[in-house]
Structures are given as C-alpha cells and as structure tokens.
C-alpha cells in the first residue's frame, strides 16, 4: 500500500471540486464603509435582527387582558433583556402611574389588616401625616387634661357626686341615731356601728359593763341597720360608677374636640371612602384608649407596646403602632407604569412576606407594620421581568405564581420554609393584581412546560422568539453590517470609554460575527460576545498606545480568546503529533479513513481527526458497529449505521443477498459518541475494505449520508476543517492534505486566516462533494461508476469492484453452506440406520 499522489480535482462547476480561498471566508471591502473611524457614527439605538420577537412583544404588551403573559425564548447574549426593557418602557410611557397600596390596622380584627388603595404618592404622605398626628396628640392631650376648663368641669362632677354621697351617708347616720348608733369609717373602708350613750359613743370601759340584755339590744339594732348599710353601699358604688362614666365622657369630649378636627382634615385632604371609614374606626378606638396618651413617659403601659422594630422606629412609635400606616407599594416617584426586573425570583422577592421579630421579652411577634410587598405587587399596573428557570428552581414558587395569576390578586403571608417559628399568622386583605409578566427562558424549557403544564398554556399565550442569527439581507441592516457594528462600537465608546475603531477593525469584527454565526450570509445576534471582542481589542490597542483600534488588535483579541480556551485542543494535537493517538496524514490504507469530530467546551469548540477502520469477511451478521455493541454510541450514531446497510442493499445486492460480516470502529475512542457526521467516512471505509482499495490518509472527510448515497450537511464544519489542518501542520504540511466537506456546507465556511492562507499557497485543500462516489473518487483516484442500462457497473470502477466482491462473498457463503450440508448428510443417514436396527 504505497502513498497516493494527489490528483488535482476539477475546478468550477464540475464535481468534486476544490474550493477557492474566496469561498472559505469571503473578504470584506472596507473601502465602501463610508467612515474612517467609528467616532463619525451615531451610537446604536435600535434593535437589530429580531423582527419576530419584536412583533410578539408589541402585540403581547398591547393586550391588557389577564393571562396574556409573554415567554421570551432564546439563548443568552442575543439582547433579549435590553430589547424587552426597551419595548416595555415604550409601552409604559403611555400608561398611567398605578395607585399606592397601604395596610392599616383592623380595629375589629387585628389579625386581618385592611388594604387601602391611594393615589400615587399619597401613601407616604398619609404615613407622615399619621405620624405627625400621633406626635401632636402625645404633646397636646396631657395639656388638654390639665387645662382649667377641664379641671373645672371635672371638679364640678366630683363636687356633685360628693354631695350625693354625703347625703346618702347622712341618711345612714340618721337611721343609726334612731337606733342609738353612730357610723364610723375604718381605715380599710369598712363601716362600724358604734352604740351611743347620752349622745356620745360608748367607751370600751362602758361596753365592758353592759348587761347581756343591753348587748342583745345593741346587736339587734346593728343587725337591723345592716340591710340599710348594704343598700347605702350599693348606692355609693353606683355613684362612683356614674362618676367614672361621666368623667370619661368629659375626657372623651375634651379629647374628641382635639382629635376629630385633626382626623377630619386628613379625611378631607385624601377624600377616600375606605380611608374615611378607617379613620372613623381609628377615632373610636383612640377615644376608648385615652389612658395610653395621658403620660409620655416610656414604659408607662408596657402591656400595649408593639415589638421593638428594626428601621429606627422610636419606642413611642412602636407603642402606638395601631395608628401607623404601612405603605407596601409606593409609586410616588414614578412618572409612568412600573417596569421591574426581578433578579432573584424567590418566594420572598416575588410575593413579599410578613417579618417576625423578637421583642424585649424574648417573644417572636409580628403585626401589620411588618408586611413587606414583593415585586409582583410593586409591578402591578405595569410589567415584571424575570428568568423563569430561576423561579422554577425555588421551592413552591411556580405553584404559587400560577395560583396568584389565576386568582388575579396578591396575598402576602409569612414564608417559613423550615417551620422554625410558630406564630399566629396574620391574614392581610388580598390586593388586586393587574400585571403583565415577561419571563425569559430557553426554547427547551418552553416546550417542556407547554407540553406538561396546562396552566402554562393558559397563562403564557404569547411567545417571543429571539433568533441567534441575523440574515445579512435583514432590513434592520439597511446600512450594512459594518455600519451596525460601527454604531455598536460607538455606543460602547460613549458608555464605557472604549476607543474608536477604524474601518478595517470594524471589517474584522463583521467577519468575526459571521464566524460566530457559522454562515457566510448570516451574522450572529449574540451581541454580548461581540462586545467582549470589542472590549478586549480596546485593551490591546491601549497596550500598544494606539489612538484607535486597528484590525490587528481585533485579530489579537480573537486569537487571545482562542488561546485561553484551547488547552485541551492543544493537548489532543500534541498526542497526535507524538503518535499516542494514531492518526496518519500521509500515505494510504485499506479500510481506514480519517473522520472528523467536534468537542464543545462551553463557548469554545474544536475539531480533531478520528481514525475509522473497517474489516469485512464472509458471513451473515451484516455490518456490526463496535461502538454500538460496546454501548458507547448514541441513537443518532446508531441510525447512521443502519443507513449504511440500507445503502449497501440498494446499491449492490441485486439478485443476491448481502452475505458479509463487517465491523466498524472509531479507534481510540473511549467515551460516548453520537451524531451521524461520521457516517460518510464509515461508508467509504467499508467500501474500501470490501473492494480492497487503499484510501488516502492525507484527506479527511466529514458528512452524513443517506440511503441513496447523497452526502448531507453537518454542524461544526469550520472547527472540523481547522482541527485537521492543525494536526497536519503539527505533523508537517505536505501540500497534498485537505478535507472533504458536503457541498451544502460550503456556505457555512468562515475559516481562520491561517487556513485560508495555506489554501492560497497550495499547502492545504478543501473539497466539496455531493455524493459518496465523489468522495471515494478523491480518496482512491478511481471513478465511482454509474449503473448502466444492463444493471451493471463499468469495469474498473469502484462500484464494480464492490459489487463483484459482494457477489463472491454471497457465492462463497452459499458454497460453504452446501459443503456443510453435504458433509452432514452421510452422518445423518448412518444415524437413521442405527435407529432402524435397534427397532
């Protein structure tokens, strides 16, 4: 098996053909850009290359009915977030600022705080006014109770009831004197009936001299007065009760003269029916708890104190928390409908929570002032944007989000996922929710949710698909890609102080964009990756002290990015160069060909050759794939193998069955392998093994094949070509080496400059092929051969040799079967006679 000399392939419209350097990476003419540096351009402001997504966003945001939320699908870096925010801001500018929402104490049921809507900005104003009102009352109420008119009225009541009490006591004294008794008050408040003698209370000495008859008479008189005394006691208690009631009425009247006008002023300023109702309940509660305002000394009534707060609230504010206003949604600073981006869509951030604190007595407590809103409530009346995958990763968030959207109202509750505290929870009044959600996710996540979650289909009726590519004919590129990328640079110049790019540098950037899109007629929509190149090129320009970024700086930035990521690729090439990985790039071998594979390492992908071998023998096992038998292959790879058998049956079997046992292997492959891009190489290796034709090792092949022998496009063509080129360069370029690719992949070629230069110099070649016949013709130097009218292939062609070999294998297998049958016949006859003799 000698080395094969390269035969020049036809060029032009004949196939197979060798590609020209211009077809490998179309050059860009910078003379037509119309600018010298990007400082002459306006910054990029419009959205580029996303008409489908923009239309979906425009229509989706325009429909304000419930459950018309939007799912923004696409990969990161395509400008999804900036496009979404720009679109939402445009809509929000034409929409009104939504109301504020406050929570106030429910004086009838303190565990069910009341929610009240106020005009934007009124929430914080009401909170300030209520704080000022409480402070004013604390200052003026004690003074009001010390005023002369209050003291005079209170003294009048006391004097009146004192006179009534004295009259009742005088009546008791009169009745006692009629029985020769006098009433005396003891220190403990009890009454003592003392006997009289000659108008004077009897002394102890005189009492000791009383006769039993006199003592009995005194006891009877005292017992007769007890019932009257009890009646007097009841009348005095009633007087005290009436005195307390009237004193409180006076206090309430005096306090109401101060409180009612203040609350009326608040009510008049806000003119809100629900607030008016609450202010009236506050007035009643306030008047019923005047004792709390009598003194301003701290800790005077600790039983009424609220939890000690965190936010700098004074002790006085905490003790009178029932009269505070908790502004949970404050839209006072907005000029339009809100647009909120929730970076961490967990339970607390989305739905809000009710905080709990430990008071000075070590108790875990809460109240309505601890209610905190989430971004759903703050975005009500506007738009909320977040990453759906982040929300799905949080426990219970997705279930609660669907329930909230379907219900159309937000309920804030204590969120304690670990159940560490047991606190009687508040149940705040639900707040109506009017919101448009725009969630960001991948296409796969959308399809999974749409298929398996019926609620998702009902809630997210709009899908905005962001493409990762832009056609070069796109209307958004009306000024050309160079102009758009120049404007992108100008934008970064203004925002990040990036130096200007000259026209040649922008041209290299446009080529890099096509390279990222892996298509000659398309550009990448991943502007974040282009921005990374721009920033790094600016660094290298600064390193060189250049005033403007030049083409060499952009190329260096791209090369540096490649260098940082290609360590593993370099190791693989070193193993090939050292001979650890057995790859031949010269000579020819039977049943052996260089296929091409691609490995992806994050955003970096690299290609390398993989040695594919085939062996053939007589048998009926068909084509056996060693990767498949070893369970190292994926479904797509296995499908490619089955297609090979279909090709053999369709091309060669004719009137004879396929009678071969062939095995295919991807040598030195110890991990999983998938994809069908090696199926063309495997088929050529198999045909080589059948026909015993040597294959060139200096030309690698990539492409999948169908049952008719057509070579189909594959992915990663640039990386595969460059991978084989680097291996050849490591081992030494001979001028005959090259790669065969499917013709349909030519438009995807955006090869690196060193590969294009090598092709220009004739040191490397790239061929495009349409069929297996064209591919094997390059690798063997023999024509494939077309089927003639008589059903045979021309002699000397590859297909003729394969067909003849398959016939000989079939005949050999048939002959072998007949010989075995003949050898077994005498033995069977002998066994029959023996059995007959025994009978």
List the SSEs and their pairings:
Blueprint: E1 17-18, H1 21-24, H2 51-62, E2 70-73, H3 80-92, E3 100-104, E4 114-118, H4 122-145, H5 148-178, E5 181-185, E6 191-197, E7 200-201, H6 204-208, H7 212-270, H8 273-288, H9 315-319, E8 326-329, E9 339-342, H10 347-351, E10 353-354, E11 357-358, E12 364-365, E13 371-372, H11 375-378, E14 383-387, H12 388-393, H13 397-407, E15 409-410, E16 431-432, E17 436-441, H14 443-452, H15 454-459, E18 462-465, E19 469-471, H16 481-496, H17 503-517, E20 522-524, H18 527-544, H19 551-565, H20 567-578, E21 588-590, E22 592-601, E23 604-618, E24 622-625, H21 626-629, H22 635-653, E25 660-666, H23 679-691, E26 694-696, E27 699-701, E28 704-705, E29 711-712, H24 717-731, E30 738-742, H25 753-760, E31 765-769, H26 772-780, H27 798-838
Parallel strand pairs: 2-17, 2-18, 9-14, 14-17, 24-25, 27-30, 30-31
Antiparallel strand pairs: 1-31, 3-4, 3-8, 5-6, 6-7, 10-13, 11-12, 15-16, 19-20, 21-26, 22-23, 23-25, 28-29
């Amino acid at each position: 098996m000698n080395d094969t000399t390269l035969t020049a392939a036809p060029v032009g419209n004949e196939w197979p053909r060798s590609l020209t350097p211009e077809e490998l990476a179309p050059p860009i003419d910078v003379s037509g850009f119309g600018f010298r540096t990007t400082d002459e351009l306006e910054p990029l402001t419009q959205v580029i290359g996303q008409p489908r997504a923009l239309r979906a966003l425009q229509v989706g945001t325009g429909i304000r009915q419930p459950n018309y939320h939007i799912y923004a699908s696409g990969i990161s870096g395509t400008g999804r977030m900036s496009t979404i925010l720009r679109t939402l801001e445009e809509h929000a500018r034409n929409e009104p600022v939504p109301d504020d929402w406050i929570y106030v104490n429910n004086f009838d049921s303190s565990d069910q705080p009341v929610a009240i809507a106020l005009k934007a900005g009124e929430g914080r104003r009401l909170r300030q006014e209520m704080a000022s009102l409480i402070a004013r009352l604390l200052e003026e109420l004690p003074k009001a109770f010390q005023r002369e008119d209050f003291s005079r009225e209170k003294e009048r009541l006391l004097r009146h009831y004192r006179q009534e009490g004295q009259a009742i006591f005088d009546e008791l004294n009169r009745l006692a004197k009629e029985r020769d008794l006098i009433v005396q008050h003891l220190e403990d408040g009890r009454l003592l009936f003392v006997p009289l003698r000659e108008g004077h209370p009897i002394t102890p000495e005189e009492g000791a001299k009383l006769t039993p008859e006199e003592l009995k008479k005194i006891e009877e008189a005292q017992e007769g007065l007890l019932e009257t005394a009890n009646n007097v006691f009841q009348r005095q208690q009633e007087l005290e009760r009436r005195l307390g009631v009237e004193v409180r009425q006076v206090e309430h009247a005096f306090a109401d003269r101060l409180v009612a006008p203040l609350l009326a002023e608040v009510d008049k300023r806000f003119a809100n029916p629900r607030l008016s109702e609450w202010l009236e309940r506050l007035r009643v509660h306030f008047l019923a708890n005047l004792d709390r305002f009598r003194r301003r000394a701290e800790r005077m009534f600790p039983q009424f104190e609220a939890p000690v707060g965190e936010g700098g609230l004074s002790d006085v504010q905490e003790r009178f928390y029932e009269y505070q206003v908790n502004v949970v949604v404050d839209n006072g600073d907005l000029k339009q409908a809100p647009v909120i981006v929730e970076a961490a869509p967990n339970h607390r951030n989305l739905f809000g929570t009710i905080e709990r604190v430990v008071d000075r007595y070590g108790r875990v407590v809460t109240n309505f002032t601890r209610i905190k809103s989430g971004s759903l409530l703050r975005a009500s009346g506007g738009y909320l944007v977040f990453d759906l995958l982040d929300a799905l990763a949080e426990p219970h968030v997705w279930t609660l989000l669907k329930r909230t959207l379907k219900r159309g109202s937000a309920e804030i509750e204590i969120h304690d996922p670990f159940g560490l505290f047991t606190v009687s929870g508040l149940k705040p009044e639900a707040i109506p929710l009017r919101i448009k959600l725009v969630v960001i996710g991948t296409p796969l996540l959308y399809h999974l949710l749409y298929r398996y979650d019926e609620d998702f289909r009902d809630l997210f009726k709009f899908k905005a698909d962001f493409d990762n590519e832009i056609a070069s004919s796109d209307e958004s590129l009306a000024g050309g890609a160079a102009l758009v990328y120049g404007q992108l640079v100008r934008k970064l110049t203004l925002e990040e102080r990036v130096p200007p790019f000259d026209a040649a540098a922008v041209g290299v950037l446009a080529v890099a964009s096509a390279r990222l899109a892996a298509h000659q007629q398309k550009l990448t929509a991943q502007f974040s990756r282009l921005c990374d190149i721009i920033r790094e090129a600016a660094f290298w320009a600064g390193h060189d002290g250049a005033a403007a970024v030049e083409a060499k700086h952009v190329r260096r930035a791209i090369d540096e990015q490649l260098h940082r990521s290609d360590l593993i690729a370099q190791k693989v090439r070193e193993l090939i160069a050292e001979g650890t990985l057995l790859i031949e790039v010269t000579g020819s071998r039977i049943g052996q060909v260089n296929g091409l594979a691609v490995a992806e390492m994050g955003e970096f992908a690299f290609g390398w050759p993989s040695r594919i071998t085939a062996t053939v023998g007589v048998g009926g096992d068909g084509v056996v794939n060693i990767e498949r038998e070893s369970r190292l292959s994926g479904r797509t790879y296995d499908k490619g193998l089955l297609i090979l058998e279909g090709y053999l049956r369709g091309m060669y079997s004719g009137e004879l069955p396929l009678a071969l046992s062939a095995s295919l292997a991807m040598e030195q492959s110890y991990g999983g392998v998938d994809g069908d891009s090696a199926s063309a190489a495997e088929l050529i290796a198999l045909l080589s093994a059948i026909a015993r034709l040597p294959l060139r090792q200096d030309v690698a092949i990539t492409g999948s094949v169908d049952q008719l022998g057509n070579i189909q496009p594959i992915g990663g063509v640039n990386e595969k070509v460059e991978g084989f080129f680097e291996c050849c360069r490591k081992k030494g370029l001979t001028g005959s080496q090259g790669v065969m690719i499917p013709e349909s992949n030519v438009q995807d070629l955006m090869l690196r400059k060193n590969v294009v230069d090598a092709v220009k110099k004739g040191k490397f070649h790239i061929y495009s092929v349409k069929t297996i016949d064209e591919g094997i013709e390059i690798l063997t130097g023999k024509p494939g051969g077309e089927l003639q009218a008589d059903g045979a292939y021309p002699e000397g062609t590859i297909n003729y040799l394969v067909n003849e070999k398959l016939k000989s294998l079939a005949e050999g297998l048939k002959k072998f079967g007949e010989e075995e049958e003949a050898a077994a016949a005498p033995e069977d006859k002998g066994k029959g006679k023996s059995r007959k003799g025994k009978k």
